[in-house]
Give the backbone structure.
Amino acid sequence: MWRRVARLSSLIRSSKASLSNQIQPANGLQILEAFSTEIQKSAKGRNHHRKKPPFITFVLGGPGSGKGTQCLKIVETFGFTHLSAGDLLRKEISSNSENGAMILETIREGNIVPSELTVKLIQREVESSENDKFLIDGFPRTEENRQTYERVVGAEPNIVLFFDCPEEEMVKRVLSRNQGRIDDNIDTVKKRLEVFNALNRPVINYYSGKGKLYKVFIQPTIQGSIVMIPAVGTEDEIFTRVRKIFTSLEVLSMLSPQFSIPIGVILFTLTNLLRR
Ligand SMILES: Nc1ncnc2c1ncn2[C@@H]1O[C@H](COP(=O)(O)OP(=O)(O)OP(=O)(O)O)[C@@H](O)[C@H]1O
Ligand SMILES: Nc1ccn([C@@H]2O[C@H](COP(=O)(O)O)[C@@H](O)[C@H]2O)c(=O)n1
Ligand SMILES: [Mg+2]
């Protein structure tokens, strides 16, 4: 069976060129392992009793790029658990934890909270959950975040989703978000964009180099030679792109021998899903 899977994995890799350039597929074998029914069966208890590691998706993008909005839709449609690093940190502030004041000041300034703390909060949530697939939103923000996660958890994410959104659009969205966030003001947004460009882009490049990155372009609409910046796609239009990625992962997860789907059919389905 594993010879067949390995062959399939290389076939999937070699079919990359024919896939839509809006979506860069990750390694097929990892996806198969993570979504396989064997894992589903072994994930009945709490996570620390699980024999195989959970399926981890890191969700990246600048401030206001739509990470949280799309994560809610992925949760509804595909049953992931959503863990927003920013939300976990804000919860620490509101629960008056010993680090609350420091976190509040860091978020107010648009800076990054020490990695050990954020990783601990994420790890606690994953370990106490009975789910086996997670969206970790807004993490890792820096190479140091990434390395700390790998060292503490001892694993890498299975895939990384990146919302590539024009800056003007991100600023507009954050300033009209109206959720009472202390960092949704023009000065902090500018700082968060600087931090994103300087510290988060290297992380994105790192995962791209590892073949784990799925990029969702939030493209401006072009009419003739005029670029219509505000018309970058509604939340549902963006989700149509995101849905294709997760649907293709689900298709791959059906590749266990009991289904015995011919490889040609799988590749045909995948290519069509991604092109639609
Ligand atoms: N496609 C879209 N078109 C227009 N507005 C959108 C779109 N997607 C999200 N928004 C709105 O933009 C704002 C920011 O979205 P969201 O909170 O999902 O971004 P985020 O990436 O999680 O940002 P942050 O990193 O600051 O938490 C929200 O008010 C949301 O309703
Ligand atoms: N890995 C992270 C994630 C977030 N922060 C801080 O929280 C702020 C808000 O995060 P959102 O994802 O909700 O936008 C962010 O600007 C950082 O100050 C962090 O330190 N580390
Ligand atoms: Mg968010």
